[in-house]
Fold:
Amino acid sequence: MDYQEILNNILASVEPLRSEGKQATYIPALAMVNPDHCGIALRTLAGECYAVGDANVRFSLQSISKVFALALALHLEGDNVWTRMGKEPSGAAFNSLIQLELEHGIPRNPFINAGAIVISDILVEHLPQPENRFIEFVRALSACPSVGYNYAVALSEKKQAFLNTAIANLLKHHNNLHGDIDRVLQFYFLMCSIEMSCAELAQAFLPFANHLVPFDYDGVTLTGSQVKRMNAIMQTCGFYDEAGEFSYLVGLPGKSGVGGGIAAIYPERYAVAVWSPRLNSKGNSVAGMKALELLTTLTAESIF
Ligand code: GLU
Structure:
């Protein structure tokens, strides 16, 4: 498969879409990013790396980090995680309060904000230095020691965090947030602020593409079964209230973020990351979704 040629064609094909949609502005620091960027990187388990466009420019991972946080929480707590949240698609916006209230403080899944805030609570509760432990794990996954938090982005989000603070309060009311609200949100904002390039992000997702080899990164271990099940959650819950559409168009497990990134995996073959900051009304990158749709169409490789 000539992935390089395919990526070149995809970048050219999505060019007209790069001006469609709107970049996220509710986190003021994200509004300052040049919205014209577009990059794609694909890494195979065989060790090849293909890249086009701005594949080496770092961007804010935002919700994509929730995959790494879930991995660390599953390592620490195993199936106990599922006593505090579900594994069902939400069909609602990532920051919705309504569902959380109706369902008595049990988030639908770990990838909506409510679920990721509970995961943050688990990590803060377990780890003496959660921020250090988390970033060391992510550095090991991405094989890149210079990956880190963007403190300005985290602070910018904190200053406008009215909805996430409301979510945390609702969780606390229902006894599903054990720690101090400000402390847990501090971790949550930093977790979302991690920056990586597409090339680094594809590397960081590669371990999730292979449940057949032991998952062990900086001492964070998962069984093959846990990795496989994380893929199932990415497939059903990775794209806000557009998970069904992404599954229909692309057919790969993955996770998007409001920074305009999407990471996805083709099990036992590759991990791919795309970035283009302009988002559709559901919060997913317009050009990024199209690029991945073209990838699985042109290669005829998807999980279906
Ligand atoms: N930090 C963002 C928030 O909580 C993440 C949203 C996202 O990427 O979906 O609003």
Summary: The chain has one domain: 3-299.
